[in-house]
Amino acid sequence: MSNHLFDAIRHRLPAADKVFIEAGARPAVTYGEVVGRSAALAHALVELGVLPGDRVAVQVEKSVDAIMLYLACVRAGAVFLPLNTAYTLNELEYFIGDAQPRLVVVTPDRADTIAPLAQRLGARCETLGTAGDGSLLEKAGAATGDFSDVARGPDDLAAILYTSGTTGRSKGAMLSHDNLASNALTLADYWRFTAQDVLIHALPIFHTHGLFVATNVVLLTGASMFFLAKFDPDEIFRLMPRATCMMGVPTFYVRLVGHPGLTQAATAHMRLFVSGSAPLLAETHRAFFEKTGHAILERYGMTETNMNTSNPYGGDRVPGTVGFPLPGVSLRIADPETGAPLAQGEIGMIEVKGPNVFKGYWRMPEKTAAEFRPDGFFITGDLGKIDTRGYVHIVGRGKDLVISGGYNVYPKEVEGEIDRLKGVTESAVIGLPHPDFGEGVTAVIVKSGEAPIDEKAVLGALDGRLAKFKQPKAVIFVEELPRNTMGKVQKNVLRDTYKDMFA
Ligand code: ATP
Ligand code: MG
Q1: Residue 455 burial (C-beta neighbours within 10 Å; 0-12, 13-18, 19+)
Q2: What is the pLDDT of residue 1?
Q3: 91-113 pLDDT tens trace
Q4: 380 lines ligand 1 (CB under 6 A)
Q5: Can you give the pLDDT at residue 232?
Q6: Relative to the CA of 167, which ligand 1 atom is closest?
Q7: Lowest-confidence segment of 168-172, 325-329, 387-391, 437-441 by average pLDDT
Q8: Distance 425 CA to ligand 2 centre (A)
Q9: Could you tell me if the CB of 300 is within 6 A of ligand 1?
């Protein structure tokens, strides 16, 4: 029987004794064990009554077994549904109620609180710990031999992944076997992954970046990875001499740049640093290059689309851009209202089409229909432009666009000007309701303490560098910007906090 995604992995398996994951002091897990352990868990799922197409919701800490559970779901024809470990009981109620999973898997210490909720919503509850413990592994322990993978075609669902909830309530993105397989194979090729690669994996595995980009690329190339429970710079410096690649969110790189250990020698064994999930400041890119000689490779993707664009492996990795559409991905810039294609260089809505693009939002047919153009392009919600060399630039989310006095103000442009000022660590530019202008441009700034700075100094510096309508009408200083667990700035939280600023 063919199982599209797991067959792709099976056909590329390296020798059974090749290491797949090393995680802390626990014994390394080999590719032979990948097949065996995922088979045992797949048997356990079947015994628990999980049928093809059933959702398996998983809120567990990062572990090799959690990856095995993902593979077991794929092999059993179930739909893997990972949930952010930070979600509270209240939030879980929404996700479990929305996804209606057959089975909910949680950490042993949370079983008492979550099991009653799961049962009330019609799901069984099992546990999975990080030390080889939990009821699910006990059940799997009894299973022996291989597992006959459930037949799944390219368009069958492999996972439902909820979006990060940066702009509002998270939406369940339905991802097919081929969405995942095709994108990981494209990335593996584009970023030149081979079985010799060793990836430093310090990302969470409930999000597309750590789960699909990182893990599937490694699995489909027979490479290895170091699994870190969380981002820990000292641990990363300790591993770099034995690693070749790292994938991270911009905050990883900001913190590495600020670490005295970041040198050419420390990164000499590494061949590739990838950044994504949020904009990497051009300044961070440059500082990292100055200290190490490595140009961070920035790419752009979404839960709904996997990865869309990437800076080139061989060519110029241009700071502040997300590179070119990946092979097989069509990308265009369109008028946000009409969908009409715009001329090269103009700012508009980024729209994409390709084998990477999801099958729609779970149980939201109207929302799904509203986010696709009649010719099949998905409306990403991100605004951008394509420069003369074909590099894609993201200027911000459509929802974050500020319209002041009828003029469009792209926050990233204003933030770029503010971030270069001495005494500024970072900034977020938002639009707040304004009686005269509709929206008033407002700058929220985190001071670095390196030099004194106040509202007058900021406004003085921007005058002359930015057109009047782009200049902030107010400046607010804060200790830090609100971020979600993927390190994304939550501008909706800022807009809400300061909504009465100009009232
Ligand atoms: P929600 O859709 O629930 O509001 P979210 O969009 O943050 O949350 P994700 O799917 O995790 O959820 O994130 C995708 C978004 O992250 C993209 O639409 C884009 O805005 C942003 N993003 C990803 N990579 C980059 C990048 N390299 N540069 C700029 N933005 C990026
Ligand atoms: Mg989104």
Answers
A1: middle
A2: 64
A3: 999 999 999 999 999 999 999 99
A4: yes
A5: 97
A6: 4
A7: 168-172
A8: 25
A9: yes
